[in-house]
Structure formats: structure tokens, C-alpha cells
Design brief:
Blueprint lengths: L1 H20 L5 H7 L9 H22 L5 E8 L4 E8 L9 H6 L20 H13 L3 E6 L6 E9 L4 E10 L6 E9 L9 H11 L4 E5 L5 E4 L22 H10 L5 H8 L5 H10 L13 H13 L15 H11 L4 E6 L3 E3 L2 E11 L10 E6 L2 E3 L7 H7 L20 E9 L16 H53 L3 H20 L1
Parallel strand pairs: 1-7, 12-14
Antiparallel strand pairs: 1-2, 2-6, 3-4, 3-6, 4-5, 7-8, 9-11, 10-11, 11-14, 12-13
């Protein structure tokens, strides 16, 4: 008996000791130990991720203020393993009260709770770059911001308190900056710089393709300056915030919406908290779900919510609004591809809007073929999500899955099973959505939703059909040219042989030669 009491007491002591060790984990502490989740898993990728997150923020800020972006990226090598990354834009600037939270607090942003297209979604990107710089060099981020030409710029140096997930301003002052408005951030970090695949220079080039309204400048560590001029002087249409579309809505999301709605009746909830549900459709849904239209949404039981969901799923709705999206557009995507790639054939397609999990999205695709593109390697696949290039985790992305599963042989290209086609081809695919379902926090690949894969395949196949026509036409032209070359080579020999066999006079020979020349000329025109 005494032994059993001792054992119980020992177990209780263990539980008490375990309880003492339990404490809340700061989001900053979590990502300090798991920075690979944010895209900082190698020195090479660290610089690329920092540039990507900062440039994305600059492009978003400029578009929201209807400003044509001028963005300069400069990378300087300070030691063998350290680099200073500077990103400067001509955006609206940031008010000084918001600077610490934007750059020094993870999971802080304005787009997470809104349904409208934007590059940033999670409120992690640029603040994670500041955190990585501090972890690897111990140096603060240096931020300069100016919101008006009539006011001085605000400069600050910022540290990250990882235990509290809070910023620390170590220096702040007003400074002169020869710029009307804009933001500049300088982060020093450990890294590695190189050109080629998945590099900063590749990211900037691809960003120029998906953002034809932007002027981008890259200054590399050796002083090389690369300028990507804008392809249009018209900024893209602003996307507008919308309500969720009922197609694809899930039970958990519906229950949360019912709990948090400000609507007093179920009918009002359906018409105001969703898009594309009118009063008549709302009444029909309530009747089929056997729920009173005047029922309080916050008092809807779980089973009633499930009945409501099943009725919604059986109902056909009008396609979602597209003013919440800002696709590149067929014409601009084609102009961008022509600007960046020396090819001989271009085709682009923009699909109608579709829905996954209640979120509207649009798929765009473009092909560049021939010219000086490499004919011996696999096609180059460029993936975009909300106009942002996705450089890593290609094999895990639904875009890659859709493209490799397309039967390119029927379009006149060589392809091994499960691979990209071989030949002088660039394939660009863009997903524009109010919420892109990334597979990880680093935002490098798109999840495999059937609705998304279907739309990608349809867009790529539509481009492929146009390419197939061109490839077959080019093959026919080459065959005809080959046949003509045979005629041009052997007809004079045949003429000489006929002259000898038939003992033709010079006059007859002249007539035969003229007829042969006429035949060759007509064959060229054909």
C-alpha cells in the first residue's frame, strides 16, 4: 500500500514539474528555430527571399496608390559571407507609427482578413527578412520613409525582440532625402550571390514579365546594372474587396461566418455576407434547408448549418465577380514575353474566373517558342501567383503538375513521361486570386486543388493548340523548301541530259529552261 502511494505521489510530482515547464511560444521564437519555413534555408535563398519580399511590398504599395513603380535593388558584398541588401521604391511611403510593426513584428498586415488580390497575405515576409538579418549579423535594419515632398524623411534603425515578437527602435531621426515619397530598407545578412537559375537576377527578370507597368533596376555586387523598362505606362486596375463566393464553402468556415456576422436574420446573412446570392435565392436556400429566413444566424445549430451547407452546394450560382482580381491580361503578358524573350511565336490566354473553397481565381498562360531559345533542353517553366514569380519547390506545385501532365506531343513537341516538353519553349502560368493556397509559409508552390489544376490545364491546352498549328505550318514550310531545293539542284542537270538525248537546238533548249524557271517560280509562290 505504501509503495502504491509513493508511486502516485511521484507521478503527481512529475505532472507538476511538467506543468511548470509549459509556456507560450512567441511566433518570432518559433520562426527563429524554423526559418527554413520562411525561405531562409540556405545563404543563396536568403538573399533571393529578402529581395522578393521587399519588392512585393513595394509593388503592392505603389499599385494601391496608383503610382507607376520605380524600384531599385542594390546588393553589396561587405565581407566574404555578408551582403548588404538595399531596396528603394517611389511608393507612398509609410507613416512612422506603422514602421516598427510592419518591419519588426511577424504576422502583422492588412491583407489577411480581406478578400482581394494582393501579393502579401500572411504579414510575415519583410519582417522575416529583418529577423534573419539580425540573427546572422546582429545588425539592425535601416529604414527610411517619406510620405510627402513637403515633409522630411523619417529614418530609423530597428531590432527584433524575438521573445515578445515586438520591435525595438534603437535610433530615430528626421533626415533629408532627395525624393518626393518612397521607402528604402537596408538589411545586412549572411548570404551567397550568384547568377542563373533561382537567382535574384532571374527573379527580377520574371517580375518584369508579370508586372509590365513596373521599371526595375538591379545593381549586382560587381557593379553590373541591369534595367528592365516598363512595357506600359498604365497601372493595372485596382482590385476591390468582395465577400466569399458560396461555391466551395466549407462547414467550419460557414459556422464561423454565422457566429461573427452582424446580420440579424439568416436571409440577410446570405445576401450580405456572400457574393452572388440575391434575396430570391436566399429564400429558396432557407426553404430547402427547412430553416426560417428570420432565424438568428448566431443561434443556428451545427446540424442546421450542415443542412444549410448541403443546400448551398446543390444550388447553382452566377460566376464570381472579377473586380476583386487584377490579372496581367493577354495583351500585356504577350508584350512582356516579347520584351524578355527572343522567340518567333507568342500566344497568351486568360481563362474566365473560377472558384475554389469560395475564393475566386483566374488562370493565365502564355507560350514563347522558337527564335534563339534553347532547343536542346526542357522547356522553361515560369510560375506566378498574384504576379509574384515562384522560383523554388517547383515539383510540389500544381502548376508544374498540370503542365507536365499535358500531352505536348499532340502539339508537335517531344516529351518524356512526367517531364516538361523538350525544345525552344517558355511556358508562363499565372494564378490571380483573392487567396492563393500556398503549400508553406515560404509561398513557393500552389496546393493541388482539383479546380485549380483543371483551369491550368485548360489554359495551357488552349495555348498548346495554337502552338501546334504554328509548329505544323512551320514543318510544312520546311518540307516544301526541301523539295524546292531538290528541284533547283537537279532540274539543270535534267535539262542538260534532255538536250543531249533529244539533240535539241539552242532555241529549243532556251524554251525548256524558261519553262523550268517558270515552274520553279510558281512552286516558290505555292
Amino acid at each position: 500500500m505504501q509503495t502504491k502511494l509513493s508511486e502516485n505521489k511521484l507521478e503527481m510530482n512529475h505532472a507538476i514539474e511538467q506543468a511548470k515547464k509549459q509556456r507560450e511560444i512567441s511566433i518570432s521564437e518559433f520562426f527563429t528555430k524554423n526559418r527554413h519555413l520562411l525561405g531562409f534555408d540556405s545563404p543563396l535563398k536568403a538573399i533571393s527571399t529578402t529581395v522578393k519580399e521587399s519588392v512585393d511590398n513595394s509593388l503592392d504599395a505603389c499599385e494601391e496608390s496608383n503610382i507607376l513603380p520605380n524600384i531599385e535593388v542594390e546588393i553589396k558584398q561587405t565581407t566574404q559571407e555578408r551582403f548588404q541588401v538595399t531596396i528603394e521604391d517611389n511608393g507612398p511611403g509609410i507613416v512612422k507609427e506603422q514602421i516598427p510593426k510592419i518591419f519588426g513584428k511577424l504576422l502583422y498586415g492588412s491583407k489577411f482578413h480581406t478578400l482581394m488580390q494582393g501579393r502579401g497575405q500572411q504579414g510575415i515576409g519583410v519582417s522575416a527578412s529583418v529577423l534573419y538579418g539580425q540573427l546572422t549579423t546582429g545588425k539592425p535594419a535601416k529604414i527610411t520613409s517619406k510620405i510627402s515632398k513637403n515633409k522630411p524623411a523619417y529614418y530609423c534603425e530597428l531590432h527584433f525582440d524575438t521573445q515578445k515578437n515586438e520591435p525595438e527602435i534603437t535610433r530615430a531621426e528626421e533626415v533629408e532625402w532627395n525624393k518626393e515619397h518612397g521607402t528604402k530598407i537596408i538589411i545586412e545578412m549572411e548570404g551567397k550571390y550568384q547568377r542563373g537559375k533561382r537567382s535574384v537576377s532571374e527573379y527580377i527578370k520574371y517580375t518584369a514579365v508579370s508586372n509590365p507597368h513596373a521599371k526595375l533596376t538591379l545593381i549586382e555586387p560587381d557593379g553590373t546594372t541591369i534595367v528592365y523598362p516598363r512595357a506600359t505606362n498604365h497601372p493595372p486596375a485596382k482590385s476591390k474587396e468582395i465577400k466569399p463566393h458560396p461555391d466551395g464553402i466549407e462547414l467550419g468556415i460557414l459556422i464561423n461566418m454565422l457566429k461573427n456576422t452582424k446580420s440579424r436574420t439568416l436571409q440577410a446573412f446570405l445576401t450580405t455576407d456572400f457574393s452572388r446570392i440575391g434575396a430570391g435565392t436566399a429564400k429558396k436556400i432557407c426553404a430547402e434547408a427547412n430553416i426560417n429566413t428570420n432565424a438568428r444566424p448566431t443561434r443556428i445549430a451545427k446540424q442546421e448549418a450542415d443542412n444549410l451547407l448541403q443546400t448551398i452546394r446543390k444550388t447553382k450560382f452566377v460566376s464570381p465577380q472579377t473586380d476583386c482580381l487584377s490579372p496581367i491580361g493577354e495583351d500585356l503578358l504577350k508584350r512582356s514575353l516579347k520584351k524578355e524573350f527572343d522567340a518567333e511565336f507568342f500566344v497568351t490566354v486568360t481563362r474566365p474566373a473560377a472558384v475554389y473553397r469560395g475564393n475566386p481565381f483566374i488562370i493565365e498562360a502564355g507560350l514563347a517558342y522558337g527564335g534563339s531559345l534553347n532547343r536542346e533542353t526542357n522547356a522553361e517553366l515560369i510560375r506566378f501567383a498574384n504576379k509574384v514569380p515562384l522560383q523554388y519547390q517547383q515539383s510540389a506545385c500544381s502548376i508544374s503538375k498540370s503542365v507536365t501532365r499535358t500531352k505536348w506531343k499532340q502539339y508537335g513537341l517531344h516529351q518524356s513521361n512526367g517531364n516538361l516538353p523538350t525544345g525552344p519553349l517558355v511556358i508562363a502560368v499565372h494564378m490571380a486570386s483573392v487567396w492563393v493556397p500556398f503549400t508553406s509559409e515560404s509561398k513557393e508552390s500552389i496546393a493541388h486543388y482539383p479546380e485549380i489544376i483543371k483551369e491550368i490545364k485548360l489554359a495551357v491546352q488552349e495555348c498548346g493548340r495554337q502552338l501546334g498549328k504554328y509548329v505544323r505550318k512551320q514543318g510544312k514550310v520546311k518540307d516544301e523548301a526541301k523539295k524546292r531545293s531538290y528541284l533547283e539542284k537537279y532540274v539543270p542537270v535534267i535539262g542538260e541530259a534532255l538536250k543531249e538525248i533529244l539533240a535539241l537546238k539552242d532555241k529549243d533548249e532556251k524554251i525548256i529552261n524558261e519553262n523550268l524557271k517558270d515552274y520553279l517560280e510558281r512552286s516558290r509562290k505555292l
